[in-house]
Design brief:
The protein is α+β, with helices and mostly antiparallel strands and about 425 residues long. The protein has 6 helices and 28 strands. β15 (about 265-270) and β16 form a beta hairpin. α3 packs across α5 (about 90-100), α3 crosses α6 and α5 crosses α6 (about 100-125). The longest helix has 22 residues, at about 100-125. The chain is globular.
């Protein structure tokens, strides 16, 4: 019964998602609802646990009541079946009705049946937690608790799903030659795992299990000869291509990591819960700069494509302080920042590198000019933008909103 209640609660997270979009199974603790559980749950679903408890307790003895579920619903009044007083009064009234009117039991069973069906159909639809384009941009790969699902682009028609055997997937990236897919995830509090799979078959070639908690970011160096993985355990490990073991580890952070990004062949930036962005030299292992201007967790990094040889590229960062900040990371300098009305969850540069696309937890997709800080709304959705990618061959966007994949053009305006 506890599992039923949890599934009903989880099912309410996805009411109101855009219709007609692809639904992929996944799980993430960063998916936010609007209005909370009781505000979005259909009334009959709220009544089901009450009625079922009344049905159980009316079967002869109050001691047969499921006290575990009762505590979930009633809190301190969970043991009301065996107590007296004002807190127990509503419960005793419900039990009395169940004892007097047999029809209450049948109504409870009917409502319970429909609630089980509703919850079972919805609970599997969980948010997407990682996105990557195939090398030819003909496919979008969506990572989730169920594995890696492949969709045609831009039609977003499902092709197949590969079970990776991971409890969660939070990071995916393609190798520079387009022949390998790196998948990062793991089990919370137990291990962080990176898998190397061939493309397009996605057969497992190699596994690294060097982290003590879930891997949240994977990045490749500019020349593709090194790659790194950052995890919730607070460390970032650097590997040479095809190496069995890491040769360098970034330990300058004091809290879990959300993001890691190579900005050259030997310069790596990492960021996380400790509100800092660390620039490290992967060859010497030295920490070059620690950027501390964010006031809350930093969960996304994006390095600007090189516009011209004479102009340095900017590093963009997004944090829970509702700011997107632009940096000259090589010299440790904050250039400028913009504060949004809601938390920016995902960021990506356009192919030209002249604009930054920002997806926020209120469902708004923005286009941000890194020089003037002018903003333009591209789209609005009901739920937060968890992931976004820019098609490398044009300026089409793919967004993950909850469990949906949505195609959006940068030429569109809200």
């Amino acid at each position: 019964m506890v599992a039923l209640f949890a599934s009903i609660k989880q099912a309410t997270l996805f009411r109101g998602l855009p219709s007609g979009h692809v639904m992929v199974r996944s799980n993430t603790n960063r998916f936010k609802t609007q209005g909370g559980f009781l505000a979005t749950t259909p009334p009959f679903l709220i009544l089901v646990p009450w009625l079922r408890l009344g049905m159980n307790c009316s079967r002869g003895s109050a001691s047969h009541c499921n006290e575990g579920l009762a505590r979930i619903i009633f809190g301190s009044a969970g043991r009301a079946c065996n107590s007296v007083g004002s807190k127990a009064e509503p419960w005793n009234q419900l039990v009395a009705i169940g004892e007097k009117y047999r029809i209450v039991r049948w109504i409870s069973l009917a409502l319970l049946f429909f609630a089980d069906c509703f919850a079972a159909s919805c609970v599997a639809q969980s948010p997407i937690t990682a996105l990557v384009f195939s090398p030819d941009s003909k496919w979008v790969l969506a990572g989730s608790q169920q594995g890696v699902a492949i969709f045609s682009w831009p039609e977003l028609k499902p092709s197949r799903t590969v079970d990776c055997g991971l409890d969660s997937i939070h990071a995916m990236t393609m190798s520079k030659d387009g022949k390998r897919l790196y998948v990062g995830g793991g089990s919370p509090g137990q291990c962080g795992i990176v898998q190397q799979r061939d493309w397009p078959e996605l057969k497992l070639e190699r596994t690294w299990n060097d982290h003590q908690d879930v891997v949240y970011a994977i990045s490749l160096s500019e020349d593709g000869k090194e790659w790194c993985s950052a995890s919730w355990s607070g460390d970032c490990k650097v590997y040479a291509l095809d190496a069995a073991n890491f040769h360098e580890m970034v330990t300058a952070h004091s809290a879990p990591l959300f993001a890691a990004n190579f900005i050259s062949n030997d310069l790596l930036v990492t960021a996380g819960v400790d509100r800092t962005i660390v620039l490290s030299d992967t060859r010497s292992g030295k920490t070059l700069h620690v950027l501390k201007q964010h006031t809350k967790s930093v969960h996304a990094l994006a390095y600007q494509p090189r516009i011209n040889e004479g102009q340095p590229s900017l590093l963009a960062s997004a944090g829970d302080d509702r700011t997107v900040r632009f940096w000259q990371a090589e010299i440790g300098r904050l250039v400028r920042f913009h504060r949004f009305e809601s938390i920016p969850l995902a960021i990506a540069w356009t192919n030209a590198g002249d604009k930054l696309i920002v997806g926020c937890d209120d469902g708004t997709v923005w286009q941000l000019d890194p020089l003037s800080l002018a903003t333009t709304v591209i789209a609005k959705h009901k739920f937060g933008i968890q992931n976004l990618l820019v098609d490398p061959k044009n300026d089409e966007l793919v967004l993950s909103v909850g469990a949906s994949l949505i195609a959006t053009s940068l030429s569109e305006r809200y």
